[in-house]
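Mods, move this if it's the wrong board.
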Amino acid sequence: MRPVDPFSFFVGHASIISGLAGSTPSPDHRYCFHTSYLDITPGRAVFHVTIDRAHATFGELNIRVMALPEGRDASVAASLTIDLEGLGAKDLHRGLRFMAVGGVKYALYGFVNDTTDLKAAALDIALEELGHVNTHATAAVRDEAAPPVLARGDPKRTVSARRLLAEQELPPDIPYSQPMQSDGDDMELLDKRWPLVGIGGSDIRDRWGSCMALQMLDFVGLVTQDSRGLLVDMANEGLIETLKQAGCSINLIDLDADDIDLLALDHAEIDHDFAVVMAAAKWQVAGGMEMLSERVMECLAKAGFIVMIVEIVGGGSAAAFRNRMQQLTLNCIGMGHDVMQLFFPHGDSWYPQANTVSRFLWIARK
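Not the wrong board. Structure tokens:
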């Protein structure tokens, strides 16, 4: 474990965390801390942050791992948010994992969204270097956190995407991360393509999620004999039957409502070719989907795919949900995985009204 000075980037600048760092007012009123950029052993690494006797009544603390390739601007490799409301004189510890790449320097940066009354006795940062290089991470960082749209098999079907967000809808035969839209024609086509999914009286949201998962898995050649799949909280009979009829071996896991530590996944095999996961609203708290996706990733073979069906509960805002999915994506890239490009239609019409729900398809590869 390597100690890191939290305030070595802006030397002498005062932190918004009362009592810490220097006395010179910072030009950025949101500034909490910023380490200097460090050379890190390629492979998995963790920045550990400890805030002693933290106390606050309001605010949000954002912490980001910043990646700085030589001759390029810095980009976000991993991030998390801590809700400070009602925080009463307690020690805070958070670990932010990411994949370090050779030739790239890394720093840890902390700031608040607007302001806060956070006070603390001390702030300590330590770097844990775990090693074990994963070559998938190199392209992710050097392409400014813009993973490729992936395919397996025919290389002519692989599309290179330079940006995290797609500016326009991609061709219908290419899978990508996207929300469900109220388009009856698309659902009719999906029902025809995967007729078994409609059995058992499943509603349109469940049918859409199951059909889109099958579209994705079929595109990368995994709806086939001897593929091993893991279904987490995905109980659609038609999805299961379609995969089994194709010759896939399927394992089912239902997460108990109180199983916030995902203990059920401890008993899963670790060589699945794919996983289809239902991420209910309870997993969308800070760090929830990141923990869920990473634990499922541990159950996949190398280059295995995770297809996550994310529940969207109306009543919030499209912008907040969009930001949440980008945060999940950046965290996943920072862990050394690839993510299918995100597409959000123009406007907010795709976002559900209050008291209604919808779905978002999110796809990544280990």
